[in-house]
Amino acid sequence: MGELDGRVACITGGTRGIGRATAEAFLREGAQVVINGRSAEKGEQALAEMNGGDNVHFIAGDVMQREDCEALVQGTVDRYGKIDILFANAGGASNHAPVAQLTDEAMQDSLVWNFWHTFWTMRAALNHMIPQESGRIICNSSVEGKMGKPALSIYVVAKHAINGLVKSAAQEVGTLGITVNAVCPGAIETDVMMAEGPGAAESMGMTYEELLAMFSEESAIKRLNEVEDVAEVNVLLASAAGAGITGSLISIDGGTSPY
Questions:
Q1: I want to staple 87 with a disulfide (CB 3.0 to 4.6 A). Which of 11, 37, 39, 63 is the partner?
Q2: Is 208 a catalytic residue?
């Protein structure tokens, strides 16, 4: 018996990184899982590698479009009959700069990619979970949702916004058997980190390698975290054992955040 037998999960940005590790962990625990991504090719590759048969399904879509977010949640219900777990995982940020040089477009893109996609999928999922009086919503925040770094404000702001949404939503549905939490990972060298990290490092006046070293040195464990660290916490939050955890901002950052 798995911890998530009979449950249906939906994961944004599920073909790689933290989303992919979480999808594999949910499958292992008996859930049926829908993963999302922009690339149908990467989706098909992920399905083949995961080898989950009929228990895993891919829906292509761009989370920066509200219609795609809503279609993903509805597509999960259409495929498996319900939605029990949402992991709003996708996110990132491009075109980092100090606030004095920051463009409107960079801030807006980060808010849409991180915060708005989380809101759109959460709202859609809640409209299925509230009638069934059960559900688990997990949002991928960040250690930067509890801290701040120079030249990374577009990411810091968006992750702080996610944390506020989690706190408020948890209060609204707390008596309905629905939990709403955020996981706050430290630096993990995912595909998104490798793609966007060099630009972030440049805006901070350092190399990508120096950026990774800085993240490691800030932590108690003196290394980066792994995607599996987050996936296992997500299993707990999605399971019956997580019923008493809601409105929480759970650090998975090797001891970096001060709270």
A1: 11
A2: no
